[in-house]
């Protein structure tokens, strides 16, 4: 695009297509379209066949001759993944959940044709006693959320640049290129208090400021989309639902620091995000929003995608750059920092997806607006991927400073199945556990660090009383050992030895000395590892030791797993009083460890038993006991 | 992570060879070309045997060891062919706490192979993967492109039977 | 030089601004222990042995890579630092085979030394799983035992430095191991056998293939006449194995030791080097005068020859067809010498002592068998000779000074300087100038081609024409030059290439010096000086003045240098190996 006026023209042309997408909106009189059907096209819902739903919708709409009246839009993630596939029909704001292709003919016939919402398929919380439909924003899941980074997710079609532009897309870039000097951009971002959403929380403006003065023939503004924490999918959702916001922000960063090339390093495990990002890049290039002389300002900027290939360590900035360079993704020693010597040895700024997604709005609405959200030292919002033992698994975005209790109980709907909340884990393999006693901790960078966890990229895994904290520490260490690049001694050998001690403890063979040795090793690894992966690898152990030392001690002194989770410390047996001899357990045992005659009590051979629990799950009489 | 290397004979069609040549040609002279080349080569052949890596090394002017070092660093690059049906069990946190390890145990017992192996008849290969992001459906496994969620170990038998029959 | 003020353990120092903490500490008289660091070769901060405390820093810092800045306060000996070092060693030992008693590097192992100094117990507190510990003994010249490898990657860097890169880190995390692509043996990849990996290795993970027992067996066989020859660079380094300062020339004691080990004749490869000059200078003149392939490139360095065959097979015609000094001498021992002394060449065991591992490969090459038998039967490295001497319990430093046996023990200063980069070129120029100018030049020193730089060039007026020469050592320099030769950009007539940086004095078969020593001493220059000093003191400094050589042409190679007979015995051929 040569000018802001052209952008304005596209906006005006497109804004009408979005007017319907609001609870209770009135249809545009100039348009025949009276319904917008938004189907979630995020990875979660796509995995449960939302594509087929879209196909079926088109089929049925055509069959009913509604092509001109109903528009089907495939959006990014709505967040409530537990209820997927999700479909929302506007202007009524009818929130259909767990939709199957088989439900579609009925919904089309009843709702689309006759105007009768099919309430049995709705998310039941939205159906009020008087039969009316509550706005989604008033449900428990959404009411405490504040969607900034996710503001377009679930609203626009991410494959249409016009819809992004209709929602003020690329206005920020236009403003920056036509009205601001690079250092003004940096000062604005600095003043907003925006901190990196990838984990460590380094002030974004400062990162840019450190890079800007470094002269070189080529500089880079890159995006870290190598979201690797198990259970985290915030960045994926942003890229799937609103890829242009990231591209726009990268161009802004490029302008601020003097870079003309950007790379998005993204996990190859995210095919939908990769595809949409590529479409977005192509469209932005076509509109001249990437490429040469953007808005006639003389500023050039382009973006290319680089795929990861399954190495968690590549989320670390120097490893990521080594990987883009086509090598083994091993971290390099800092300093020199990437701001001075980064990708291909050139000054480089690397920000995370969610960080970038905040930038355009900060530019448009100002630093004060952003600073007014969140806490003093952590402004803005944070997106979390809620998972584990929680009712509403999914994606939530809350202002910084929201308490863990609000997230778990109000938004997350609490722990299901009559179990009780034991702890939440944040920060993935680099983070730690927050015990139930600290559930009122406000979530922001500093509070989480103070209690031995970390924000991380935003994975939030909830655990109940059946989760063993030693086992969880072991799980994360297994992950780290798997993902260690092997370059430095503390991480390569140290984490392996740490895991071995944990294995010893969870198999009931540990000693109290092992716990001491383990702690010593943890501090050594933290202090001596080359990169953040190693430096934070002991956190899951240290934080569980801090809050659940008694569980460790029970494992070593009593050879008991209080949560009953450690296989080696639990045994399955059959209560002869309750067993009816139905043989179901014996037939299902994968290793043939159960014997017994029909209608006689069965017996488990504990030597053969692999403790898979299948017998227990199968027994209709509760005769299988674990202790 | 120790990569398994296939010793099965390498087969290559003229179309595949042509595609790989084109990939290498398009990447020549580009900085950091090894990773994209390996990605695309794996799309063509399904895995990255010696013959393919040699071609990449020669084409891009880097040593074979350098290419091999990269291919063994990243878990997505495979040096063994995949089975006709490729099963992947998610061991991400959400799936793990919901028992995906038991699903995997069941598969190991049923197929008689361990993760990163392929059955002798080439029908099934198995891998344990990291979070695929379908945490709402935990525990999850995929067979080829099909996702199976909210699994219990017994589901494995039914699902396998479905593919064995195909 | 810009300086900054720092404090090391509370004491103030002024150090150059661009120093690393490691270098800065040396100004303070403090060595910080390292394992992965090797000056000029490997600086990756991976082993974490060199961690120090820096005031105000969040964690410990790697001294080998982090630069100093003004006002920095460094602590190299705090309890935290000591604990860190101890733990690093304990962890490394937990993945090490700990078979020190039988290890070739015992006493000269950097890991062992540090463990001793730090008081590490043999039983690790962190016993656990061991990595695969692969072994590779596929080649004729080198053995790898990954059970002793600490993944410092010095060998990988050394190999990359040579632009060969046949070894690297494979797999990831705890399973990372150093090896070749697709788990091949080194024999099946385009390794050039230079052995720079071995001399970079801090532990016993890489060693030459030991052939000392073959030599002992030959000596103990009464049927055999065992004749040994020693390369120029050996005398400049062997003393290091016996505690002598680096750069001590131990030619005389070495000869005495070889006699006492039971060799029947002790010859000097310098004679072979003189012979090489006669042949190579003649070949060069012949090529120039007859429109032969130019530039002509020297062929005395077998690592270089193998490199050329693998990576520049299109340029093998540029290689001089001359055998290396070792094989020329070996060939003459089994032909001329055997004939003269009336010994059946079958009963001769021809042994060489070389600063080189690639020589073990060279002796098994095709077309290196003038008498229908291998020119050289066994090639030992300098280190293996030291091992033989130690095994025989000879008190090396107390041995008398002795001279090489006549016949092939007579040599010139031109032969001696073969051991340093530029030496072959200089020696060739000495002879070519005299021959073509038809006079005996007073000045025999060609300083432009001396020195340890990897690339040198000069133009000399020889026989009325301008001869443009280049001298490179280290294969990265050779690679760069050959690309220019290939493209036609380089217009040299004569090029000397030595595989190892600095030439044979820094060869892969030389005594191994620790990273700490290598930080203080320039091995290449110091050892080379011993050779140039010897050259300067010699009465004869031009190959063509060697009386034994003249005799050889008079009575044996009667059609002269580069003649038919000389070609049969002293020249060889090459193969296009490719990668």
Features:
heterotrimer, B: 166 residues, alpha+beta, Glutaredoxin, 2 domains, 5-stranded mixed sheet, 7 helices, 12% strand, C: 579 residues, alpha/beta, Ubiquitin-like (UB roll), Alpha-Beta Plaits, Rossmann fold, 4-stranded parallel sheet, 20 helices
Q: CATH class of the largest domain in chain B, anyone?
A: Alpha Beta
Structural category of chain B: alpha+beta
What is the second-level CATH architecture of the largest domain in chain C?
Answer: 3-Layer(aba) Sandwich
**Largest sheet data of chain B:** 5 strands, mixed
Strand order of the largest sheet of chain B: 2-3-1-4-5
**Which range does the strand content of chain B fall in?**
5-15%
Textual characterization of the structure:
The complex is a heterotrimer of chains A (627), B (166) and C (579). With 627 residues, chain A is of the alpha/beta class. Chain A folds into 5 domains: 17-136, 3-Layer(aba) Sandwich (Glutaredoxin); 161-371, Rossmann fold (3-Layer(aba) Sandwich); 381-464, Ubiquitin-like (UB roll); 469-557, de novo design (two linked rop proteins) (Up-down Bundle); 571-626, Alpha-Beta Plaits, CATH 3.30.70. Chain B has helices at 14-27, 34-45, 50-60, 64-73, 93-97, 100-111, 155-165, and strands spanning 85-90, 117-118, 124-129, 141-143, 146-148. Chain B has a 5-stranded mixed β-sheet, with helices on one face. By secondary structure, chain B is of the alpha+beta class. Chain C is α/β, with parallel strands linked by helices and 579 residues long. Chain C is 35% helix and 14% strand. Chain C has a 5-stranded mixed β-sheet with strand order 2-1-5-3-4, with helices on both faces. A 4-stranded parallel β-sheet of chain C has the order 12-11-14-15, sandwiched between helices. In chain C, strand 16 and strand 17 (465-473) form a beta hairpin. Classes of the chains: A alpha/beta (627), B alpha+beta (166), C alpha/beta (579). Chains in contact: A-B, A-C, B-C. Chains A and B meet through helix 2, strand 10, strand 14, helix 18 and helix 24 of A and helix 2, helix 4, helix 5 and helix 6 of B.
